[in-house]
Every structure is written in C-alpha cells, then in structure tokens.
Amino acid sequence: MTDLPDTLSDRYQIKGLLGSGGMAKVYKAYDERLSRNVAIKIVAIETFIQPKDRQKYITRFNKEISVLKKLSHPNIMNILDFGEFEGKPYFISEYLQGGTLREKMEKPIPWKEAVRGLLPVARGLMYAHQNGIIHRDIKPENILIRESGEPVLSDFGIAKSLDGIGINKTVTGEIWGTPEYMAPEQMNNAKDIDIQADVFSLGVVLYEMITGHRPYKINYDLGIPKLDSKDYVDPQEYVSNLPEQVQFVLFKALSLKPKSRIRDMDEFLRILDNLLIDPVNKVSFLLPQKPMNKPQRTAIIVARYTLYGAVIAATCGFFGLLFPAILGAPWAQELLTRAISPVQSPVNESLLLPTAVNTTNPFETPTNDVSPNVDLPIEIISPLRTIMRLVPAGEFKIGSNANEAYVECQKHRPDCIQSRFADEESSPQILYLNAYYIDQYEVTNAFYKLCVDAKVCLPPQDNRSQTRISYYGNQEFDNYPVIYVDWNMAKTFCEWSGGRLPTEAEWEKAARGADGRTYPWGEDLDCTHANFGQGTDGTCVGDTTPVGSYEIGQSIYGLYDMAGNVNEWVSSLYKPYPYSVDDGREILDVFGVRVFRGGSWDYSTGDVRTTNRNGLGPASASDNIGFRCAWDVP
Hints:
Elements (H helix, E strand, L loop, with lengths): L6 E2 L3 E9 L3 E8 L4 E8 L10 H15 L10 E7 L2 E7 L6 H4 L6 H20 L2 E2 L8 E3 L5 E3 L6 E2 L22 H4 L8 H16 L7 E3 L2 E3 L17 H10 L11 H13 L1 H4 L11 H22 L1 H12 L1 H10 L9 H4 L26 E3 L5 E5 L2 E5 L3 H11 L16 E5 L2 E4 L5 H9 L33 H10 L7 H9 L54 E7 L20 E4 L15 E4 L8 E3 L2 E3 L2
Parallel strand pairs: 18-21
Antiparallel strand pairs: 1-2, 2-3, 3-4, 4-6, 5-6, 7-10, 8-9, 11-12, 13-14, 14-17, 15-16, 17-22, 18-19, 19-20
C-alpha cells in the first residue's frame, strides 16, 4: 500500500501507523477542523478484490459506511467521515486509546465479570440489528476499550445490511470474517447470513473470556474451515466450578444449527442479565428436562393413587379402615417421601437439593415463629426447578379490623370509603400453621408454558397483557408472571408440578410474617417496593414487570411480589372470617367464589396490604391475576 501523505483530505494530519492486517491499515491522525485525534482505516482492496470488481466494491462500501455513520450508540464506535484515496476506500472514526479486549484476556476472567463486560457489547449489537446491520466479524480485537473502561464495538467493515445493501464476497472461495469466531453458516458462505451469526460470534468471545480457550477445534478440509459438534469442548473442562446454567447458555449460543441457537441478541442480552440476577431461577427454564427414573415415577404414581384412595376412604367404610393401614406401611411411607422430594436434575446438585439451614440468611425468622424442625432447609428447588422458600411453623395474626384497614388506606388515598372494609378482613385472630414451602416468585410465562407443552395445562385465555399485544408465548416476557389463568388452571399447574395452591392463611403468613406487617417489607409503601397502582397519583408501571424486580420489596421469608405485580389465586373459598380450615373453605371440588390475594399493578394502595382479600368465580381470568404454588414439608 502506498504510504499516506502527511495530510489526508486537507484535514487529517497523519501521526503514525496504529496497526495493519491482511485487509486494511489503521492510522492515528489529528482532525485539524475539530481539534481532536481520530483513527483512519484504509482498506487494501488490491489484496482481495479483482480489478474488474473494485469500483463495484467501493460503491457498496460507501453505501454501507453511510448506513453505519447513522448509528449512534455508546457501545458502537462512531464513524465520522469516509472517502477514497488512490482507489482505496477509507473511513474516519473516533480514536480510542484504551486498547482492545484481547489485551484484557491474558488469563481467564471470572464468569460474572466476563458477562458484565460483554453486556454493553450485546446492547450495541442489539441496537445495530434493530437498524438492519449485522457485524459479521465479532472478535476480541474488534472490541475496543474507552479510557473509562467501557467496551466499544468497532470494525463493521464487512457488515452486511439486512436490506441487501452491503458488502459481499467478490472472490470465489473468499470468506469474510475470522474463522475462529464465525458461525458455520458464515463459513459455508451461506447467502442469507442473519443476526444469529453475530449471536454465535459473541458466544465464542464469551466462552474464550471465561475459559481462555475457544469452544471448537476447527477442521480444515482442503483449506476450508469446518465445524463439527463433536469437536465442541465442554467449558467445565477448563473451569471445573462453572455453574451449570452458564455452561448451558454457552452451549445454546454456540449451537451449530441456527434453529437451536439463542434466537437473537435481545434474547441473549436478557439471558445474560438474568445470569447475573439469579442464574438458578431465571435461567433454569432454558435447561433440558431430565426424565425421572423408574423409582421416582413409581413413587409419584403410588402417591397419586394413595391420594385417590383417600377420597374413596371418605365415603367407603371398608376403605376407611384399610387406608390408614396401607399409608402406615414402611414401603408406602418411603414412596410418599420420594414423591414429594425434589426430583434430581442435571443442574449442580449443590444448587438444587435441600441443604442445612443457612445460618447467615439475611431474612431472619422472627423469634416467635421458629420451626420445631431446625434441620429444614430455608430453600429448596422443586422438580420444575422453581425456588421455594421455607415458612416455618408457628403462630401469626390473620386478618385486621375494619378501622385498621381504613386508616392505612387513608394515609395514601383520602378518597377511601370506610364501608368497603367492614366485612372483608374483620375478626382478626391468632392461627398456628405447620411449616411449608412456597414459591419465591410468581409462576412465570416460561414455567407455565412447560405445563401447556406437556398437554396438561390449558393455555392462558388471552395472549395479551394490558399494554402488550404479544405477551404469553413471546420470549421477551418469559420471566414475567403468567396472567389470564383462572383458579382451575392455577390449581392444575401446581398439582402437575408436584405442589398445590397455598391456602389463604398460608399466603397471608408468607406475605405478612409473624410480626403483623402491613406490607411484606414493613410499613412504608412506594414504587421502589412494589409494582402497584397509586390511585389518584397514577401507577408505578401500568403493566406487569419481571418477577423479582423489587429487591427491597421482599417479605421476611425472602419472597418477591407478595404485594403488587399480579394478584395471586389461593386454594380457599371466599368465606367470611373468623378463619377456620374446618368450615369447608378448603374443599377443592365444590363450586364457589375463590380468594385471590396481594393486589396487582393496577390496584391502589389500600388493596396491596398483606391482609386485603378479594374473590372471583373459579372460571374467571384477568390480566392482573396470576399465582404461585406451595409444598408441604415431607
């Protein structure tokens, strides 16, 4: 390549060569007009473009750069200008002197740090994809670092517009990109390279950041690079303690088949975000389901038929005598215990199986609410891989008097009507409940879909939410609470997953604790605690939010969204207080109005208290009602 003059285009004073490769050279220059340093990249088209195709290439290059120049994102390098010098195209970009990601990868990076570092790049790519641009050459050398430490994606020089205007190969056999980071369809020169090629490349970069190695050993057949699934190296071979969820995310991003790969950068970004927030619960829906072994299946079958026997026993005297004898047999006890214990899964056992009580648990149990069984784990994972938290055995107050409810409502809403509180929560009393487990989060769209796909649950009665045309079935909202499920549908799901709907008393204790809290977290209420409607002041969000979004809104037992987001079905019939489990309110096979609790995104202040109760027919469904499940302690 002919050396550049001292000044290019009567504006850029050349300071020196920054780097060079097979396709281009990069120079540092000073922009005399704007008084700042810039970078100039000149493409050496004579090295890879035949003379007859060079003008065609330059025309396409200029069109591509003009599109890139319009991109404006903090994690995409700014293109400032472009032109042509002695038949070679060039472009001007901002000058970044923090080095490249490659220079930061001298040794493997802890997975959380690697994910945090790559999230801004994923956001930049998502923005580019939304604007019709595919990068097609993502690698550590093309991720530059600002002095602030912020990563910036550079070198869209071989990007291709989704609208068909862009740079294509012009020499037979020429492969655009770096083979070690390329998706197989890109290696094969497929005509329709789409955004999933960038998903694959970013997956390679993340894998290499975490392990210090690349995921595939590339085979070269007649000089052409090829990938084979058998050549994939499990990242655990390099990082032995890498969480199962992280391994599987890498595996999904690096699938050789685009249809099996993470769908797009939006989904990839959401998954990476969730890895940092809660990898066990919020990413586990991606994990493949492991079939139960024969003893586990047998245990569940026996347990189910034992429960059926209990129903028969209620009406048949002979079975009424026989049933206790069967249930008391050692073999039946063992099978029942297996049936209600968490089913093994492919996830790291230390994350899933019950462990000893965590004495450093930040959610301290009240002194008057201590389980008699101190060996119960605070947290278990259900067979469906939902996180369930322990509510210890003990006493608590259920209900409130009408005046208490009215006074609390008036603090936030002067237009409260006292008469509406007269009957709903009256006759407060002290109840004792045995220990039980309850879902830490409301059941999400993703988990509910597993039951629908298993042909057990009915789909929600509507796929929309208040402000979204597509909600259930849209992967963007997988971690949002399922809605438009009636009481019967919620009951079916909980039983299918191995649990049950909580009773009204269990729900209130889980939300309120033993110290009689007005709200799950205490007494103060605003939009930092929960997603609710503020009455005359408007609403916090105006629709559902991802489960677990309100860190300071947890109950004393570490449960999220017990106030706001969506109301939650419970098992109980809507009967007046005083509460009694023996008054027929927990009979499940009779028709009647069922209770839902907790308030929702559109409920005003007075309605998200821990004691507030409402009821609807069991076939009713709404955009503000969901549910969570409970488990008995074995």
